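Aim 2 progress update. The chain analyzed this quarter is reproduced below.
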Amino acid sequence: MLKNKIIVIPSTEEQALPCFHIQADLKAPFRKYLAASGVQETRDPICLGPVGPGGEELVEIEVKDTSEAHMELIAGAFLAEQK
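Predicted structure tokens:
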């Protein structure tokens, strides 16, 4: 279930910049991990509120010039450290 705590949203026609949707309880440690990885946030995180059947609080973190593959690697490495 841990893998569902972070969702990678690549840039598209509707979404100009790539972003992560993460569970709110991971916001602080994930932001520190992004900074340590050299990934820049483009703005302050946005609370998306409760989402899905479980009503999980999600936060959107938009990042600058990061490929989807790199975002997947970052998310995977972060989650591996959380186990």
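The longest strand covers residues 56-62. Strands lie at 6-9, 19-23, 46-51, 56-62. These observations will guide the mutagenesis experiments scheduled for the next reporting period.
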